[in-house]
Amino acid sequence: MESDVKEEIRKTESMAEEMAVEVRSANERVANLGKVIRRVQSSLQALERVVNRHTKSLVTIRKHKGHVEDSESAEVTVRPPQPLSENFDCPHPYTKMGTGCFTVHSDVRKTWEEARDDCKNIDGDLANPFDLFDLALFLDETFSGRWGFWIGAQLDNTDTWNWVTVVPVLMQVDFWGRGEPGDALENDERCMFLHSLWRFRAGADSCSHKKFFVCERKLN
After folding, report:
1. I want to staple 189 with a disulfide (CB 3.0 to 4.6 A). Which of 17, 75, 101, 204 is the partner?
2. Is the pTM of this model over 0.90?
């Protein structure tokens, strides 16, 4: 009888030891699982930060693009242009500025070719001033809001910008807007425009896009 009791005690102790081993093993697995969970949580947090950064960058890019693209609903203010000389001898509807007569078309957007045709219909051409700074200053003093204007310059197959008079464009300091003209030839952005986002510095865009435009009539 006593031997039977001892055997039962031995079996019970053995089972208790086995259970203790299982408990320790389970605790280790739980601890390891906790480490894995913490690593996953850390990775998810890092991924969330990356997503947030990219989301902010995308919003910034879209806002930037929204400024550059002409917007039909943009709120704008127009001040009547003032002649820069008392000797105002440009025919209607042109205004004298420097060595040329200019008129700004800000009512209907046209493609570059359509805009040029309109300029020719009033005995002019798309603006091709010798000094683009004067024209940019004129526009900056006249228009506020979101404005983009075609002017008379195109990119040829040799990656050279030329005025409609076939004279190469003189690239002055701060000629281009930020990020412009990029890879205009590869992107088929062969027509030049000025935009208020860059204080009317130059940019390159597809000639098929529609923008306002500036015509010029040379003084003879």
Report:
1. 204
2. no
Phi-psi region of 173 (alpha: psi -120 to 50; beta: other; left: phi over 0): beta
> Could you tell me the CA-to-CA distances from 23 to 10, 12, 27, 138 in Å, in that order?
20, 16, 6, 84
DSSP class of residue 196?
Answer: G
What is d(CA 63, CA 80) in angstroms, rounded to the nearest whole number?
A: 29
Instruction: Name the DSSP class of 209.
Output: S
- What whole-number distance in Å separates Cα of residue 178 and Cα of residue 113? 25
CA distance 99 to 190: 26
Domain end: 21, 40, 68, which one?
Answer: 68
In this structure, are residues 169 and 162 in contact, taking their beta carbons and an 8 Å threshold? Answer: yes
Q: How many domains does the chain have?
A: 2
> Which of 41, 68, 95 finishes a domain?
68
Strand partners, 212: 149
pLDDT in tens, 41-77: 545 544 554 444 444 444 333 433 444 444 443 444 4
Q: Name the pLDDT band for 39 (thresholds 50, 70, 90).
A: low
Q: Nearest CA to 68 among 187, 151, 177?
A: 177
Q: Does 94 lie in the same domain as 54?
A: no
Q: What is the DSSP letter of 84?
A: S
Measuring CA to CA, which residue among 86, 90, 110 is closest to residue 100?
A: 90
Residue type (1 letter), 27: N
Asked if 199 and 136 touch (Cβ cutoff 8 Å), the reply is yes
Average pLDDT, stretch 85-92?
69
Alpha helices, DSSP H only, in 122-212?
132-142
